[in-house]
Design brief:
By secondary structure, this protein is α/β, with parallel strands linked by helices. It has helices spanning 54-61, 83-88, 105-115, 130-142, 158-170, 188-204, 239-246, 258-264, 287-292, 308-316, 318-324, and strands spanning 14-21, 31-38, 43-47, 69-74, 77-78, 90-93, 176-180, 208-212, 224-229, 232-237, 250-255, 270-272, 278-281, 298-304. The chain starts with 13 loop residues before the first strand and ends with a helix.
């Protein structure tokens, strides 16, 4: 597809138009007429509070739940009559692990690919086709558990189990990897390491990643974030756009000679805090530009740049939703 500027525009790998879901006997819609696209290779974060419609939406996109209405295409296939083709093009890491702790890591993978028809089951790893063995070892080394591939899963840490689930989901070389709360229950170090590997998968395997998470800071790495609340889209854009739209960047300054500092800050958008300090907004100027205008000796200097989590909490505040939408 070529746009008006003559540039090649890729077809979205996920297209959702007017998706609606109403559960039986429910008074309110679980998903209320939402539309969005995801581009090939994009890291897309789908966020929202409990009950917002996240799980319902991802269940529909992965063909495990039927929609009430709307149009959806995944990897070029229509969800209405090509669900099998869709499943062959997506990998899924569920919120709750689905591993057999009494098997080795490789046995878990072997049973999985056999159930999904990717490879015919053989009773031992040695009897599996060379293509399977090469792919398993490649992915295991890629995610840094190659030395543990033939160890019982009950010896694995939580982070290692998550890596194994990612390996399973990548065995059929999916175009899209759906991650539903992938780091839930992991400690901070395991979460950090896992995200390092996921970014590596996204970059080197050219895999589109569709993420849902309660850890909002994890979405800082996303190309775009989509916030849903009460079944509707409250925001869709980059993390930077979300923070700039909903939060302020500012300096917090104080000096012994406050009157002199106030005169130097007169050209800038400045507020006085309840305790008499100076809150200087710098959306249009850089902190360095503001510093260059200050000659007064400072007692306090703080630079506040909002986190994505702060912007998210500000957004889901019911008082802000209507204004944003």
């Amino acid at each position: 597809m070529v746009n008006k500027m003559g540039e090649i525009k890729l077809q979205p790998i996920i297209q959702v138009k007017n998706l609606t879901k109403r559960y039986n006997k429910a008074q309110q819609l679980a998903v209320n007429n939402i539309s969005f696209d995801v581009q090939p290779g994009e890291f897309f974060a789908f966020l929202g509070p409990n009950g917002a419609g996240k799980t319902t939406t991802i269940s529909i996109l992965t063909t495990t739940l039927s929609k009430t209405s709307g149009d959806i295409t995944i990897a070029g296939y229509n969800i209405n009559n090509q669900s099998k083709d869709i499943r062959q093009n997506v990998g899924i890491v569920f919120q709750n692990p689905s591993l057999d702790l009494y098997l080795t890591a490789e046995e878990n993978i072997r049973f999985h690919v056999s159930l999904y028809g990717d490879y015919q089951y053989k009773p031992t790893y040695r009897l599996m086709p060379q293509e399977y063995k090469s792919l398993v070892t490649q992915l295991a080394d890629f995610l840094d558990i190659g030395e543990d591939l033939f160890k019982p899963l009950r010896t694995f840490s939580g982070g290692m189990k998550r890596k194994l689930e990612i390996i399973r989901s990548l065995m059929h070389k999916p175009k899209i990897l759906f991650l539903d709360e992938p780091t839930q229950g992991l400690d901070a170090v395991s979460r950090r390491d896992l995200w390092g590997y996921l970014r590596k998968v996204s970059k080197e395997q050219k895999t589109t990643i569709f993420l849902t998470t309660h850890y909002i800071e994890e979405a800082e790495f996303a190309d775009r974030v989509c916030i849903v609340n009460h079944g509707q889209i409250a925001f869709l854009g980059t993390p930077a756009e979300m923070k700039n739209r909903l939060m302020d960047n500012y300096l917090l300054l104080d000096a012994e000679n406050r009157s002199l500092l106030a005169s130097e800050l007169r050209p800038f958008k400045t507020e006085i805090t309840p305790d008499g300090k100076f809150k200087v907004h710098f959306d249009e100027q850089t902190p360095q530009h503001i510093f260059s205008q200050i000659k007064t000796s400072l007692l306090q200097l703080e630079i506040h740049t909002p986190s994505l989590e702060e912007a998210y909490m500000n957004l889901i505040d019911s008082k802000n939703l209507e204004a944003v939408q």
